[in-house]
Amino acid sequence: MEVELRNPNVVMKLSRLGSFHQSKLSFLRSFLKEFKDWEYKRDLFELNEFGYGTAVYSFKKDFRVYSLICFANELNEKERSDRVIATKWDAAFVLYDGVPSKKDIDRLKKEVPKQEVGRLSYKELTLSRANKSVRVFDHVVKRLSEGNQPDIDLLSKVGYLYRTTAVYGSGKFGLADRFRIKNRKEIYGPFRLEMMLVYFVRQFTFDQVNHVAKHLNPRKSVSLDIEICRNLGIGNSTGLGMAPFIVNHPTLLNNWIYARETALKNIREIKDVKIEDKELFKICLKKSIKNITSWNTDSEFQQRKIKSLLKDLNKFIQFIDNEFDFSKTFPFNSIYLWTEENLGEECIEYIVSMMMEPFDYIVNPLINQMSSEEEKYFNIPTDRTVKELREILEKKYPEILKIDFSKKENNQNFWFISKNKEEPRLADRFEEKGSDLEQPLAIARDIKKLYEALSISKNSSTIDKFLATNNNLRHVVRRAFIIEKFPYSEIQDNTIGQSIIPIDMLRLKLSFFGALKFDPRSDKWLRICMFQGAPLPEELKNYDAHWVYNSLN
């Protein structure tokens, strides 16, 4: 039996994309698997009694070394902010290519805490900063210094000691350009260096809190329990700055989604499922409920999503346990078809993620296909005809071509870069000024404009001639020829419409990162947790691929 890949016009709707969850394809999970055999070391740890100072951590294998340099600073409470425009943080970090010398560390000590205004070099790969969850950090220090472990309930609600407020790479602020490192096999997968940085930061938070507690009470203090460490991750505050990424990187987006859709297709095509694979699927599924019930959010929107997900998931588990026969042929195809008939989008996509857990032989080859050499697809085939381009639009954007952009509700918003906050924002076109500075993120509207322009152009006319008089549409002409080859490269929704929920765009990207505990603070930004439940560095050699379900609070 051959199963069709799911229709992009269904999958690429924002409500569907915003229902994605972490899976074995997620970058932090594949990163840990790839680096489990690397030699981990804490090379330097020079912190004073208050936890301020410098630390260095490294991964080494053969001739390659990656080192994280940490600078922990004293920070006045009034100066602590998660905003991009902040200028001071509790800690700043840089991932260094190789082994840093004392001279390197001294140079970086001056520059890294400055973040965006610092001067970095090609030897530095990624840059980040983070703030304490002060309430949790201070609680842990106090309890450890008294010889006790911290309150598990408090830690469960938050899930981390620190949260990052930005992670930069790919040539920003003087960091190494991607071309310098793109051929390294060990970091070919997406966001490998960023994941490495965050993983090291997580370990630093444990070492720092133990250090401060010990200095506070040397005779009585204890170290944070390993099980508790394992159940803490790194938090992250993410806003609209993440949204343009998935619009501006169509081939990369396609490769992420295509890998996921291919995994689903191949799993649905398994004729006979082994008993052990069936059992592993059910075990991971039931353990994962603990994850959902641990989400702590004040967002009514997210609370409704969690409630709906739990209701549907319990319905699904009852179906699997009491009604479904795994001995039938193509069981996962039957399961998937049942979910589409009986469950909401959030739970459908949750189960799609869960289906991957038993099948390394299907998932692992796809991980290596999730990067993209985007520059290969930048050129426009100018010898193609107007007729060919119009047919591509009709085939690939059928729903978008139906949108009437003369209606106010379909043209309600615009994207811009905030001068004060230095990051993308979404504003009401009819209530706020600044639409003349609109960013080119209204792809649906521009596709419609392109189609209308093509409709009054000569069929046999070539694209170079069309662009000579329609150069303002060049960016969507390029996208149309990209989607011809990459079916999942485009969000099939209106990103400036009245009904847009921007957080769906953030959820999409964060699901591929491997985020847990989605906690929206509005429809435009949220907090998440990364690496919660992950093995500690010294445990990596005994790596358990299903760690995300084994030890979550």
Share of residues in helices? 40-55%
> What's the total helix number?
22
Category by helix and strand content? alpha+beta
- Amino-to-carboxy terminus distance: 40 Å
Mean pLDDT: 92
Question: How much beta, percentage-wise?
Answer: 5-15%
Number of strands: 11
Give start-end ranges of low-pLDDT stretches: none
Largest sheet: 9 strands, mixed
Global geometry: globular
Mind telling me the C-alpha Rg? 25 Å
Q: Going across the major beta sheet, what is the strand order?
A: 1-2-3-4-5-6-7-11-10
3D architecture notes:
The chain has 553 residues and is of the alpha+beta class. It has a domain at 36-239. Helix content is 43%, strand content 14%. The chain contains 22 helices and eleven strands. α5 (134-145) packs across α8 (192-216) and α17 (386-396) crosses α18 (443-455). The protein starts with 7 loop residues before the first helix and ends with a helix. The mean pLDDT is 92.
Write the layout of secondary structure elements.
Elements: H1 8-11, H2 14-17, H3 27-35, E1 39-47, E2 53-61, E3 64-72, E4 91-97, H4 102-111, E5 124-132, H5 134-145, H6 152-158, E6 160-168, H7 178-181, H8 192-216, H9 226-230, E7 233-238, H10 243-248, H11 250-268, H12 275-293, H13 300-322, H14 331-342, H15 345-355, H16 360-367, H17 386-396, E8 413-417, E9 424-428, H18 443-455, H19 463-469, H20 474-485, H21 503-513, E10 516-520, E11 526-530, H22 547-550
Parallel strand pairs: 6-7
Antiparallel strand pairs: 1-2, 2-3, 3-4, 4-5, 5-6, 7-11, 8-9, 10-11
